[in-house]
Structures are given as structure tokens and as C-alpha cells.
């Protein structure tokens, strides 16, 4: 795919709390909250949105419309999308490409999920699951490892085997997984949106119940309910709406799917999409103008897909943040947290903040946008703008769903960024980067379309 | 959304038989069949595809990848999309936009469905269905009808009420619905892909078991299993691959969602998307360069969404094929079949050929493309090219899903169309416009990517 097209910017972002699934909130209400916050943040109404992409894995078709219709029935194209755990960034990818291509000035990407507690299972018992293919490949890969038969539910087991492969090839160990998990849990203490804020230590992580041979419970992301929303716009739109004080550029973005090595290589790391991430990162950095393998030093802050700390470990390498085989050394050096080379998962990552499948990828972009705006308060990565170039360092997002697809984004302050005048924090009335509040009907009324339906809106439960 | 962008063309199409749901074929195998046929038709391999949109309503996320990976693991973006009954054309809308915008030269839209038999119902009992609110609006609208309470399952009942509203306002009766149904069933006798080949007469339609006050069973689309595929490409691609003998231009295409009347008007016709279709049709004719209300005379052949004969009746009007209140006259004049002004649903429509949700919209474009190529054999609408303009008449597609979304397309032979051999019929070895055959392993071998996985392909059941 060609990478040409206009510049695009995230101009508004909103997130709900990610919570343990208790069926307390419906996706249409969580979606309404996230979208309302994003619109308030951007200082626009729903009338400015020309197309919407709504990502979720569980639920009947047209759940996207059900959520957005509370904001208005403006007749715009609305498409429901999914790609397992990379659903949220799949929605953003579409919104972004539409604006990039000049087909719209402003597009909205919304993602939400209402999940069942416990491990992921198939909801379609009457047919073979698409994941059956991957399970077969995972079995073959497990047989190739030196640790013998593993145990545990299929998702953590696959990623645990990927970590096992890394340990056997490069000498990392479970201690590194625990350090990653503990680092994420420590980060989450600063994040009011986060499902967990326990800040578990390495010892506590290691002492938690064993899920597989390698992973304990605190190294695993939970299932969650939640929603997140990003609004993408053109430069014209940014200028017209005076959003130079908060627009964050999507400098580059790519989506990749599996190559044959996922199924043919016998490697547990590839079964978990290591090569898919590597190819996506390569594409993304190339799109941003870097020569192969370059550009990683210009990244300051990262949100990546730690569904299990095992995946965070191997993803450092897949993204090129370190050389192959060096990921555990990066952990030991502390180059994945405050004071180190990169701050990785300042939000607490999936392990701590939760993982509502449709929302996660959009949440990642929310957090990175806030970092690059420098609104992130206690989560703020320091030194992002102690650079000769006023645009500062890049933010990097990596979101993966097995089955599968990876989306990577490189975000950065645009050269015209100028923190002056009222911004989203004033419009919301608080800094939603690190304060989590619900929305009220008053908020919705500020952003809803002129073509709204009282009949639909009266059903909303904020 | 802006309508500007490059010209785009459907260059390859494929279709499986639509069958009563018996769970005999998996979606990945049906998808492989449809996609293989489309690639053969276009004379390209899967390596030429730069992005894919896969539409289906029922099944786990990444079922799209599961189907396409049999053709290759080329790493291209793959998005799973849905919009209830307009899922198939939603996938095409995505693919078309990518090519139109200049982001790719060639994109694939695949759609499939494996359904349960019987009426549509929610698959997610643990949460309110997104269609609850439209169901409530429908119930309120029904109260406004002088004919009193209706009966029957939700979906046919909603559409039956719309027909009833039409009768109350304009005249016409259940006889007209029966004529529409019988017309579609007569058409389907000529389509080997169709689920039904019974060719029921008006009397037989009226004598079938009653489903609502207005509709009998033979006026209702069945549930079905099946798949369909369309490949969209740029003009540059058409010329580079010598496809001037079969490329059909997507002159214009639009997607609309509901406006407030769906919920606020208490009109049964509006509840089932009459206004949504009208807005969409107005958009596509405008995009094609026509003044408001104009252009319908230049249409020769139509595939529209007769989920129930009731919807076909009101859709004639919504599309502007007749004036308000004249839909039943159009039926009486025979202007919806061979020998009349338009041939509507030469395929047999949803009533005659079936309705696998994810495939239907793509199937419609398959049939219209074949009509405009002049390949449709016994289904061929006559006189499409007895016109001063060598491009001949337009084909019109309308695909609607409640919840909701409508996609309309205006297709036409391009100015450079030049019939010549060999074309897709030679590559497949038969005229797949009106002959339905399975694909063989040799067919898949001709079109699969160089980057394929033998272990995945080995699982395919053709």
C-alpha cells in the first residue's frame, strides 16, 4: 500500500474507566461517554464528524450505530469493524486512511467492549473457531521447546511459550517477566482509568497464582469493560478549529497481517505474531522517513500490547527498541520505565489498566496523545521535549490481535504546535489525561448533533 | 464525505451457491470458493490484492483472515466489517474507497455467512440488542396503523407494517406483494446460484402459510449460507491487466445511516429505512452528475433488497424509480421485469436466491456486473446497450441493513469497454454468470500467492 496522502492529526480523545466485567454498563453507554469526551476535548460537535468506524468483538452487528445515534442521526457512513485484540486500532486505521486520502476532513474512531469474566472463549460453538489454526501451530511450537508440556488456558499458554522460546534462545528468565509486570502495575497507580492500581512488587507478582509454567496471574491482563475514542482530522480542520494547541500528528501508521512464518516456522514467538509486529514496525518507521532499523532512538514513549508480560518482552525486539536477544537486558537496565531510555506503557499497559478488546488500541492512542500534549500529569514521561527539534520525541503505539493483525503508529507533535489558549481541559472542565470522570447529559447536549433524536437519547444511561 | 477520487472498476467477481443453512460448508471454504472465482475471473493472483475487507455478521473476529489465509499470507491489511444485512456492500464500500482515494490499486471485498435456520435473532442474550430500540419504534409505529395489531416474528412484521402504511396512503394491496414475490421467484429459475427454483405463481404465493397479516412465507427471504466476492481496481490496473473487456465502473457509491425520522416519525416505512434509502439514492445519483430526481430513466437493471416483498414495493419509490404513491402501478405495468421499464432483481432477489447476510450485497454487485458485461445468459436484461451512448444503461444496487446502513451503487460499462476474448469465462472455463460450479484445488493453485502456507491450504474443503 502506498503511504502518500495528507497529514492527519488526532484532535480529540476520550476514555472511560476500564473495569472488571460485571455487566453494569452497556456498550452504547460506555461508547457515548468516550465519544462525548473526545468531542468535548476537540471542541466540536458530532455534526463535524463525516464518517465513523466502531470497533468491538462481542455483540450484534450495528452496535456502533446504537452507540453513536445518541449523539445524532446525521446519516454519515458508520462501519462496524473488528480484528480481535487489535480491533480498536483497526477502527482508527480506517478513520485515519479516510482523512489521509482526502475523502473526509474529520472522522471518528470509537471502540468498546463488554466482556465475560475469565479467559477468552469462543461464542460460536456451532462452527470451527478461526483460532483453531493458530492453536495447532501453537502445539507444534510447544513441542519444539525444551520445557516439556505447558499448562493453562490457550491464550496465556501461547504467549508463555513465546517467552519460553526467548529464554531458551537468549537467556532471559521468569524474573524478567515479573519485572515487566511489576513495572506496569507500578505505572498504573498513577492512572485513574486503570482497572488495577495495586502496584504489585516483583515478589508479589512471582507469588501470585501460577497460570502457566512461566506466567503468574499478575503477568496477565484481565478481561474488562470499557470504551475509548479518537477523532482524526486534516490540517485544514486543525487550523479552522484552532486546535494547534492539542493536535498530535499521526506521522505514520500501518497495518499488517500474518506471513507464512506464523504457521510454518514452528516458532512460538512467530505464532504470537513476532514477525507480524516486526514487519509492521518496519513499515511504520519507513513511512516516517527513516532508513531500515533507524528511528527508534527518536522514540520517547511507547504503548504496546502486553496482553501478557511475555508479549511485552518479545515486542521490545520486534519493534526494534533493542537488538534481537537483548530484551531482557533492556528490562535489567530499566530502559522501559521512568528514568530509562523509553517509558513503556506509562498507562500501566494491558496487564494493569485492563483490556476491553474493542477499546484497547484506541486507549493506547489516547495515552500517547496525552503524553505528547504534555498533559499526562503523574504519568508524564519526562524529557520528551528536551530536544533540539521542537516537535520532540515520537510516541509509538503497537496493538496486536492474533488471527490476526498488527497496527503500529508513530505520533508526534506537529511543528505548528503551540500550547496557548483554551484547550480540551478547559472544555471538559478538568484534565481528563489523568482524571477520570463520568459525563453528564449536559456534556452530551454540548456535543450532540442538531439532528438528534430525543427518543434515542432518553435511553442513555450515563 | 467528499465524493472526489479516481475512477474505480469491478474487475473480478465470484459467487457460491446460496443454500439452506445446514452447516455443511464452513465460511472459510465458501469464502475461498468465491474469492478464487473472482481472482480467476480477473486473471490475477492474490498477490495483486493490496487490502481486503471481509464482511460477515456471525462468527468470531478474524474469520476474514481465516478465509483469505488459504490464498496467501501476504501481510496486507485485512479488516472484518459488518452492518447487518448491508454487510456485503459495506465491505465493498471499504474496498472501493481505498482504490478511489489512490491508496491502493486493487482491493478485495469478500462476504460470507453461515446462518441458523429460521428468523433472525440476537446471538448475545447477556446484553440488550442494538435493535431493541428500533423494535420499540416499530411497535409504536404499528399502533398508528388503522389495521390494528399485526402478528409474526419481528423482522417480517416491521416490513409488513411498512407495506400496510403504503397501502393506507396510496392504495395497492397484498396482491401487489404477491406479484413482486412471484416475479422474483420466476426470475430465480434462471439463476443456478439461487436457493429456490420453484417459480411460484401469484396464487401459490398467496396460498403459502401466512407469516404476518400481509406477508406469506413465499414473500420472505430465507436464511442462507453462501459467499460472494468483488475485486475493485483503478483504471491504471484495468489497462495494465487488459481487463477492458470486463471491467465495470462503479460510477458512484454512497453509504448512509439513519436520520431522526427512523425513530421520531412513528412511520413504519421510516422505521424500516425508507428515508435512509432515499437519502442514499439521492446521493449516488448526484455523485453520478444528475440533478435532483433525475437519472432514473438511464437505469436499466436493478438489484435491490427484497428481504420481504414489502421492502421491494416501498424501495421502488425510495430509489425514485417511480413517483411517490406509484409503486403498485409500477408492479401492475410490469415495469419491474423483462419487457418492462426496468428489470428488477434478475437474480431472483433475496426472496428467490437467498440472503446470507455477509454475502448478499456483494452478490448483488456480482449480478449487476454480469448484466453490464452482457454475460448473464438467461437472466440477461435485454436492450441495455440499445442506446446512443455505447456505455449503455446503468445498473443500480441497493443494499440495506436495519440498525443501520444503506449502500447504493451506480454501475456502468466504461467508455473504453471492448468485448474481446479471452476473458474471465475462458479463465474459469465456463460462464460463471449463469453457471454455478465448485472450485477445484487446481483453481486455487492458479490464483494463490507465492507466500502461502501449505498447512492452511491443506485444510480447505472444496
Automatic annotation (TrEMBL), chain A:
Keywords (alphabetical) are: Transferase
Which Gene3D superfamilies does the record cross-reference, listed alphabetically? 3.40.47.10
Q: Where is the Thiolase N-terminal domain?
A: 9-198
| Keyword Repeat attributed | no
Q: Which residues form a coiled coil?
A: none
Thiolase C-terminal domain: which residues? 268-383
PROSITE patterns registered for this protein in UniProt = THIOLASE_1 (PS00098)
Record's superkingdom? Eukaryota
Q: Which SUPFAM superfamilies match?
A: Thiolase-like
UniProt cross-references to InterPro entries, sorted A to Z = Thiolase-like, Thiolase_acyl_enz_int_AS, Thiolase_C_2, Thiolase_N
Q: Which GO terms describe its molecular function?
A: acyltransferase activity, transferring groups other than amino-acyl groups
Report what the protein is called. Thiolase N-terminal domain-containing protein
Automatic annotation (TrEMBL), chain B:
- PROSITE patterns listed in its UniProt record: THIOLASE_1
Thiolase C-terminal domain residues are: 272-383
Q: Does the keyword Hydrolase apply?
A: no
Domain Thiolase N-terminal, residue spans: 9-198
Q: Name one GO molecular function term.
A: acyltransferase activity, transferring groups other than amino-acyl groups
Q: Has keyword Transferase?
A: yes
* A Pfam family reported for this protein in Swiss-Prot or TrEMBL: Thiolase_N
The protein's name in its UniProt record = Thiolase N-terminal domain-containing protein
Look up and give the organism this protein is from.
Phlebiopsis gigantea (strain 11061_1 CR5-6) (White-rot fungus)
Q: What is the lineage of its organism?
A: Eukaryota, Fungi, Dikarya, Basidiomycota, Agaricomycotina
Amino acid at each position: 500500500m502506498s503511504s502518500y496522502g495528507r497529514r492527519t492529526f488526532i484532535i480529540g480523545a476520550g476514555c472511560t474507566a476500564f473495569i472488571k466485567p460485571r455487566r453494569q454498563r452497556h456498550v452504547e453507554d460506555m461508547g457515548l461517554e468516550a465519544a462525548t469526551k473526545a468531542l468535548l476535548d476537540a471542541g466540536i460537535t458530532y455534526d463535524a464528524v463525516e464518517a465513523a468506524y466502531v470497533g468491538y468483538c462481542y455483540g450484534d452487528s450495528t452496535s456502533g450505530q446504537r452507540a453513536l445515534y445518541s449523539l445524532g442521526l446525521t446519516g454519515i457512513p458508520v462501519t462496524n469493524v473488528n480484528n480481535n485484540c487489535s480491533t480498536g486500532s483497526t477502527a482508527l486505521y480506517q478513520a485515519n486512511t479516510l482523512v489521509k486520502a482526502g475523502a473526509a476532513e474529520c472522522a471518528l474512531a470509537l471502540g468498546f467492549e463488554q466482556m465475560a469474566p475469565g479467559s477468552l472463549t469462543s461464542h460460536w460453538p456451532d462452527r470451527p473457531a478461526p483460532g483453531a489454526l493458530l492453536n495447532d501451530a501453537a502445539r507444534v511450537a510447544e513441542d519444539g521447546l525444551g520445557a516439556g508440556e505447558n499448562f493453562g488456558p490457550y491464550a496465556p499458554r501461547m504467549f508463555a511459550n513465546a517467552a519460553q522460546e526467548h529464554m531458551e534462545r537468549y537467556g532471559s528468565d521468569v524474573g524478567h517477566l515479573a519485572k515487566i509486570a511489576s513495572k506496569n502495575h507500578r505505572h498504573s497507580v498513577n492512572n485513574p482509568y486503570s482497572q488495577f492500581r495495586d502496584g504489585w512488587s516483583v515478589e508479589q507478582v512471582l507469588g501470585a497464582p501460577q497460570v502457566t509454567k512461566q506466567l503468574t496471574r499478575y503477568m496477565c491482563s484481565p478481561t474488562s469493560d470499557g470504551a475509548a475514542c479518537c477523532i482524526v482530522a486534516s490540517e485544514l480542520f486543525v487550523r479552522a478549529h484552532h486546535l494547534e494547541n492539542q493536535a498530535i500528528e499521526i506521522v505514520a501508521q500501518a497495518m499488517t497481517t500474518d506471513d507464512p512464518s506464523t504457521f510454518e516456522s514452528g516458532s512460538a514467538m512467530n505464532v504470537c505474531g513476532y514477525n507480524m509486529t516486526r514487519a509492521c514496525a518496519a513499515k511504520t518507521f519507513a513511512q516516517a522517513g527513516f532508513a531500515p532499523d533507524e528511528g527508534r532512538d527518536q522514540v520517547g514513549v511507547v504503548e504496546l500490547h502486553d496482553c501478557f508480560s511475555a508479549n511485552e518482552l518479545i515486542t521490545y525486539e520486534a519493534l526494534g527498541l533493542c537488538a534481537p536477544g537483548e530484551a531482557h537486558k533492556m528490562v535489567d537496565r530499566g530502559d522501559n520505565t521512568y528514568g530509562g531510555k523509553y517509558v513503556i506503557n506509562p498507562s500501566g499497559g494491558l496487564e494493569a489498566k485492563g483490556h476491553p478488546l474493542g477499546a484497547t488500541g484506541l486507549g493506547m492512542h489516547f495515552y500517547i496523545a496525552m503524553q505528547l500534549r504534555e498533559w499526562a500529569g503523574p504519568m508524564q514521561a519526562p524529557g520528551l521535549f528536551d530536544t533540539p527539534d521542537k516537535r520532540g520525541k515520537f510516541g509509538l503505539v503497537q496493538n496486536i490481535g492474533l488471527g490476526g493483525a498488527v497496527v503500529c503508529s508513530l505520533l508526534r507533535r506537529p511543528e505548528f504546535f503551540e500550547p496557548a489558549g483554551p484547550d480540551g481541559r478547559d472544555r471538559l472542565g478538568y484534565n481528563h489525561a489523568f482524571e477520570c470522570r463520568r459525563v453528564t447529559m449536559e456534556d452530551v447536549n454540548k456535543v450532540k448533533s442538531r439532528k438528534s433524536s430525543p427518543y434515542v437519547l432518553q435511553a442513555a444511561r450515563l | 464525505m467528499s465524493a472526489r477520487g479516481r475512477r474505480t472498476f469491478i474487475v473480478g467477481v465470484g459467487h457460491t451457491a446460496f443454500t439452506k443453512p445446514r452447516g455443511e460448508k464452513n465460511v472459510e471454504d465458501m469464502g475461498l470458493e468465491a474469492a478464487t472465482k473472482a481472482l480467476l475471473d480477473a486473471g490475477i493472483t492474490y498477490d495483486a490484492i493490496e487490502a481486503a475487507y471481509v464482511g460477515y455478521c456471525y462468527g468470531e473476529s478474524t474469520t476474514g483472515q481465516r478465509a483469505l489465509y488459504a490464498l496467501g499470507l501476504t501481510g496486507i491489511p485485512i479488516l472484518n466489517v459488518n452492518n447487518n444485512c448491508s454487510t456485503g456492500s459495506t465491505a465493498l464500500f471499504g474496498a472501493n474507497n481505498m482504490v478511489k482515494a489512490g491508496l491502493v490499486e486493487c482491493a478485495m471485498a469478500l462476504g460470507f455467512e453461515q446462518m441458523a435456520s429460521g428468523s433472525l435473532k440476537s446471538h448475545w442474550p447477556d446484553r440488550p440488542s442494538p435493535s431493541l430500540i428500533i423494535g420499540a419504534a416499530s411497535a409504536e409505529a404499528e399502533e398508528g396503523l388503522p389495521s390494528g395489531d399485526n402478528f409474526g416474528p419481528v423482522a417480517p412484521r416491521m416490513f409488513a407494517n411498512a407495506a400496510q402504511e403504503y397501502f393506507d396512503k396510496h392504495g395497492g394491496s397484498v396482491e401487489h406483494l404477491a406479484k413482486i414475490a412471484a416475479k422474483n421467484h420466476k426470475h430465480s429459475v434462471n439463476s443456478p446460484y439461487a436457493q429456490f427454483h420453484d417459480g411460484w405463481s401469484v396464487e401459490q404465493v398467496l396460498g403459502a402459510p401466512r407469516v404476518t397479516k400481509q406477508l406469506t412465507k413465499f414473500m420472505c427471504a430465507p436464511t442462507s449460507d453462501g459467499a460472494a466476492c468483488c475485486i475493485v481496481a483503478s483504471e491504471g490496473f484495468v489497462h495494465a491487466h487488459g481487463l477492458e473487456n470486463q471491467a465495470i465502473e462503479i460510477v458512484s457509491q454512497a453509504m448512509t445511516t439513519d436520520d431522526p425520522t427512523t425513530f421520531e416519525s412513528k412511520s413504519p416505512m421510516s422505521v424500516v429505512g425508507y428515508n435512509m434509502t432515499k437519502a442514499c439514492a439521492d446521493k449516488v445519483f448526484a455523485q453520478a452528475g444528475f440533478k435532483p430526481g433525475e437519472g432514473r430513466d438511464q437505469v436499466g437493471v436493478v438489484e435491490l433488497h427484497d428481504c420481504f416483498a414489502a421492502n421491494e414495493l416501498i424501495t421502488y419509490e425510495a430509489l425514485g424509480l417511480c413517483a411517490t404513491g406509484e409503486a403498485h402501478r409500477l408492479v401492475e405495468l410490469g415495469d419491474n421485469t423483462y419487457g418492462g421499464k426496468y428489470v428488477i432483481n434478475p437474480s431472483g432477489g433475496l426472496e428467490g436466491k437467498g440472503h446470507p447476510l455477509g454475502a448478499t450485497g456483494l452478490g448483488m454487485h456480482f449480478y449487476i456486473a454480469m448484466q453490464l458485461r452482457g454475460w448473464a445468459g438467461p437472466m440477461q436484461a435485454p436492450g441495455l446497450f440499445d442506446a446512443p451512448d455505447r456505455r449503455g444503461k446503468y445498473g443500480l444496487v441497493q443494499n440495506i441493513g436495519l440498525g443501520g446502513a444503506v449502500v447504493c451503487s451506480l454501475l456502468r460499462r466504461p467508455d473504453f469497454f471492448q468485448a474481446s476474448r479471452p476473458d474471465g469465462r475462458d479463465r474459469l472455463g465456463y460462464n460463471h454468470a449463469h453457471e454455478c460450479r465448485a472450485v477445484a484445488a487446481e483453481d486455487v493453485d492458479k490464483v494463490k500467492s507465492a507466500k502461502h502456507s501449505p498447512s492452511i491450504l491443506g485444510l480447505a474443503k472444496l
